[in-house]
Amino acid sequence: xxxxxxxxxxxxxxxxxxxxxxxxxxxxxxxxxxxxxxxxxxxxxxxxxxxxxxxxxxxxxxxxxxxxxxxxxxxxxxxxxxxxxxxxxxxxxxxxxxxxxxxxxxxxxxxxxxxxxxxxxxxxxxxxxxxxxxxxxxxxxxxxxxxxxxxxxxxxxxxxxxxxxxxxxxxxxxxxxxxxxxxxxxxxxxxxxxxxxxxxxxx
Length: 203
Prior knowledge:
By secondary structure, the protein is α/β, with parallel strands linked by helices.
């Protein structure tokens, strides 16, 4: 099977240039609309198959992803690897300001399922890795052991460095691309006076 290419992946999503605040709190000049990524199963299948093969080498017995895209990916990977899957969902973040305030919660139905399991934690795309960080923390709270982090596309190095350098977790990706992220205080788009855009608003 030929290696899936970055261009093939980007053909499956809609990208917008502008000024956006990501879930992590970082600012960026590109937004990828991923809601329809799994609407064309045949098109996304080569990416899922490639990631599943790479995750298999880490011998997980469970795969978990954050809603929405990570959960759909986790379900697809679990079928490919013939292992169980679960998902986390966004929770109201704590008060305060700064980066990585997002929280994800594991439904009560999964609490016993994840305990003492080796988990592959996946998302469709990782840039800063906000939802993946929160999902890993939630799994560890229920005595699961994340053994690998995976994504179809890894953008930039912020998220990957966190997992490899700070958490000692390998990161598997099908494709990678450069990506600029800035804390609000260092954002050149803010310095230029560009207003933040709501990615849910039509262009």
